[in-house]
């Protein structure tokens, strides 16, 4: 009786065929004697990623992931997926391959090239940046990575009046957290004592960082003395520009949600509850500095996102609108890189990956239906497959 | 063109069938229910039944009667039981998140297992877990109140399938609501479903308690009710 | 309490024997009422007791008593089927000759067929 109930419950159809009921013939890690699945790439080093690898998934080892993304960089929903799948895999897509090719071929004695990554909500901008950070790490760049400007402009933990720049606001707790992130990501390069300050920096009557001190000392100072954290970032930006131009290191500046630096309605308030324009936040100066083209031996990859600004103003995802007049004048000329929705190949690869990870049950007609429902948007596809 | 039901005998019976079928319906009696499943439609096209029904006025399909690959009558019923104030979209989102949570919990267990044999035992399909939970928490018999001589006796009585399924679904949802303030309903419901599917947890205990009560009251069943 | 004579005066002072007054016609009704005809859901008591015995032995684990559960559920579904058939027959008016306990609908049908003609 109960069995018949069970079969009735499965919407009048006979019990699932054995093939669908089988839980595991695949192991979690691809075994050496098995042929790699069609959606995976054996090339796990982004230095070698080319057009052939587009649509394939490559794995990031957990050590690299810890080093690069411990304090941010991968979107939270993607992070939960990675925890469930028990591995860190990114899809190799055209925008990131294009930027990587550019980064390989550009002449670094010329002023820095600025790339602006844009796309509709959920198309994969943040993950494109994550891929480029991994490339930068493998290629030996010094990475200045701002995971999400919205956290600073719209969700700052604490704001205070700046000592060094009258009329400015400091966001010191967030700044100190960022310095920890910077130190962690570039620990291998900061250990190299070639990077030294080019000037004296005086913090107060008793504290100063002398000339030719290692850069890590400057960073440590900012972390330990939270009062000076924002100013520390500004000084760090200047120093790194000078060091790059001098040829001591090649720098990769990666910012997600860059347009938040130009959106006037932040959620940072003065003590009198007045809205602070990003111009009046000290850290903005640092990153505006870094994204200028008056230095060499580096690259700037920036993503502009609708979600970084208030919902009522989320009208268009295009860079001219999101950057506004000031932002556009600042960034012009830049290389626009569009992140489109999935192509058919990428979509198929994504579905194959979900099926292999046992996340989605294989069903007839599933791919076609999900193509229409998600409109090939990667984020929408992920949400649909969550309950699939 | 009126289509008469084939077992009509008298006018009275016709009206009684009318009232049974259409007591709340906005449609006249001759409107047929829509057939929205693609498989059924293809079958009917093949056999030629589709032609017969092509010119009969049809009721409009409800919003959850889809031709989707993921259409599932049990889950639709469950969503309806979760729904409050007619907020179907919220109820649907909650159940989708519940299924997602079940998948995540099961996959975590799956990845922890080292043996392939042990891995095969872990059920990764959230729907199967839902069905199993419903079946495991269905009571076999229940108590009905019978009032005799001013006293209401709780008499154990066999239960219909529909009633049993409704009771089990209701208990599962109640167990999902019985939670700490900081836990989400869909997470709690997911844990309850997984427990019930493995024949342990609050709901299965409630069912067993009901059976124990029935056993305690079995004397009343033997009584000759007038 | 009122004194007796006033009581008698209020009621018109009837004397025994009371004359019979035919208020309603002295005829039986041409139909039977269906009020007392509801059967209680008394069924499957034997299967129930067997089931309880088995469950008590196994600490109310259903997986230990599949046969008893099946038998109980079969008994119930049979009973329901019989009930439904009986009801359909009543509605249609089919009667089996020699049946000792007719339902009120069928009795009424018979009475309509063979009324008390005066």
UniProtKB/TrEMBL annotation, chain A:
One of its GO terms (molecular function) is structural constituent of ribosome. InterPro entries: Ribosomal_mS29, Ribosomal_mS29_met. Pfam families: DAP3. Keywords: Mitochondrion, Ribonucleoprotein, Ribosomal protein, Transit peptide. One of its GO terms (cellular component) is mitochondrial small ribosomal subunit. It is found in: Mitochondrion. Its main location: mitochondrion. One of its GO terms (biological process) is apoptotic process. Belongs to the mitochondrion-specific ribosomal protein mS29 family. This is Small ribosomal subunit protein mS29.
From TrEMBL, chain B:
GO terms for molecular function: RNA binding; structural constituent of ribosome. Residues 57-218 form the Small ribosomal subunit protein uS7 domain. One of its GO terms (cellular component) is ribosome. GO terms for biological process: translation. Gene3D superfamilies: Ribosomal protein S7 domain. It comes from the Eukaryota. Keywords: Ribonucleoprotein, Ribosomal protein. Belongs to the universal ribosomal protein uS7 family. This is Small ribosomal subunit protein uS7 domain-containing protein.
UniProtKB/TrEMBL annotation, chain C:
The keyword Disulfide bond applies. One of its GO terms (biological process) is mitochondrial translation. The keyword Disulfide bond applies. Gene3D superfamilies: CytochromE C oxidase copper chaperone. Pfam families: CHCH. Residues 44-77 form the CHCH domain. PROSITE patterns: CHCH. SUPFAM superfamilies: Cysteine alpha-hairpin motif (SSF47072). Keywords: Disulfide bond. One of its GO terms (cellular component) is nucleoplasm. GO terms for molecular function: RNA binding. This is CHCH domain-containing protein. It comes from Pyrocoelia pectoralis.
């Amino acid at each position: 009786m109960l069995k018949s109930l069970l079969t009735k419950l499965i919407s009048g159809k006979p019990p699932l065929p054995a093939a669908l009921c089988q839980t595991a013939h695949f192991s979690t890690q691809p075994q050496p004697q098995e042929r790699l699945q069609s959606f995976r790439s054996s090339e796990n080093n982004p230095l070698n990623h080319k057009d052939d690898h587009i649509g394939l998934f490559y794995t990031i080892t957990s050590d690299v992931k810890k080093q690069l993304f411990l304090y941010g960089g991968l979107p939270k929903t993607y992070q939960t997926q990675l925890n469930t799948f028990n591995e860190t895999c990114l899809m190799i897509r055209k925008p990131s391959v294009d930027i990587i090719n550019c980064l390989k071929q550009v002449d670094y004695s010329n002023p820095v090239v600025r790339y602006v990554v844009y796309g509709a909500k959920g198309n994969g901008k943040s993950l494109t940046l994550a891929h480029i950070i991994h490339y930068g790490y493998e290629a030996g760049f010094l990475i200045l990575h701002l995971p999400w400007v919205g956290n600073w402009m719209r969700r700052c933990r604490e704001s205070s009046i700046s000592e060094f720049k009258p009329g400015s606001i400091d966001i010191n707790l967030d700044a100190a957290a960022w310095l920890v992130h910077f130190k962690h990501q570039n620990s291998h390069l900061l250990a190299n004592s070639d990077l030294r300050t080019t000037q004296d920096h005086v913090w107060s009557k008793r504290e100063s960082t002398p000339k030719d001190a290692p850069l890590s000392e400057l960073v440590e100072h900012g972390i330990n003395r939270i009062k000076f954290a924002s100013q520390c970032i500004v000084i760090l930006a200047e120093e790194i520009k000078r060091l790059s131009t001098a040829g001591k290191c090649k720098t990769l500046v990666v910012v997600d949600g860059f347009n938040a630096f130009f959106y006037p309605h932040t959620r940072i308030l003065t003590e009198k509850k007045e809205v602070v324009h990003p111009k009046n936040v000290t850290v903005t100066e640092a990153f505006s500095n870094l994204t200028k083209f008056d230095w060499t031996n580096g690259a700037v990859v920036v993503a502009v996102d609708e979600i970084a600004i208030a919902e009522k103003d989320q009208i268009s995802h295009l860079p001219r609108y999101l950057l506004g007049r000031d932002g556009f004048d600042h960034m012009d000329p830049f290389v626009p890189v569009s992140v489109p929705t999935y192509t058919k190949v990428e979509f198929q690869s994504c579905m194959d990956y979900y099926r292999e990870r046992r996340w989605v049950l294989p069903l007839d007609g599933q791919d076609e239906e999900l193509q229409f429902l998600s409109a090939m948007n990667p984020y929408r596809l992920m949400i649909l497959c969550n309950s699939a | 063109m009126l289509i008469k039901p084939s077992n009509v005998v008298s006018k009275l019976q016709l009206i009684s069938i009318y009232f049974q079928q259409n007591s709340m319906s906005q449609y006249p009696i001759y409107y047929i229910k829509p057939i929205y499943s693609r498989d059924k439609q293809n079958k009917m096209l093949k056999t030629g039944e589709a032609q017969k029904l092509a010119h009969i006025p049809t009721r409009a399909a409800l919003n959850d009667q889809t031709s989707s690959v993921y259409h599932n009558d049990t889950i639709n019923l469950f969503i309806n039981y979760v729904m409050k104030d007619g907020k179907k979209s919220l109820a649907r989102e909650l159940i989708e998140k519940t299924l997602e949570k079940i998948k995540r919990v099961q996959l975590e267990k799956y990845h922890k297992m080292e043996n392939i044999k042990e891995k095969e035992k872990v059920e990764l399909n959230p729907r199967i877990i839902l069905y199993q939970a419903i079946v495991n928490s269905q009571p076999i018999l229940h108590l009905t109140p019978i009032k005799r001589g001013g006293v209401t006796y709780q008499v154990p009585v066999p239960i219909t399938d529909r009633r049993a399924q409704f009771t089990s679904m209701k208990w599962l949802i109640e167990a999902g609501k019985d939670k700490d303030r900081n836990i989400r309903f869909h997470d709690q419901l997911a844990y309850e479903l997984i427990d019930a599917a493995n024949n342990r947890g609050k709901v299965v205990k409630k069912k067993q308690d009901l059976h124990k009560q029935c056993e305690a009251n079995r004397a009343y069943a033997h009584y000759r009710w007038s | 309490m009122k004194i007796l004579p006033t009581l008698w005066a209020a009621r018109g002072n009837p004397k025994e024997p009371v004359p019979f007054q035919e208020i309603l016609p002295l005829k039986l009704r041409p139909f039977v009422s269906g009020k007392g005809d509801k059967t209680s859901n008394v069924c499957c008591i034997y299967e129930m007791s067997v089931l309880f015995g088995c469950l008590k032995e196994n600490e109310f684990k259903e997986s230990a008593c599949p046969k008893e559960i099946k038998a109980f559920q079969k008994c119930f579904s049979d009973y329901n089927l019989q009930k439904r058939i009986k009801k359909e027959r009543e509605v249609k008016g089919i009667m089996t000759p020699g049946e000792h306990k007719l339902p009120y609908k069928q009795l009424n049908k018979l009475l309509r067929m063979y009324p008390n003609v005066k």
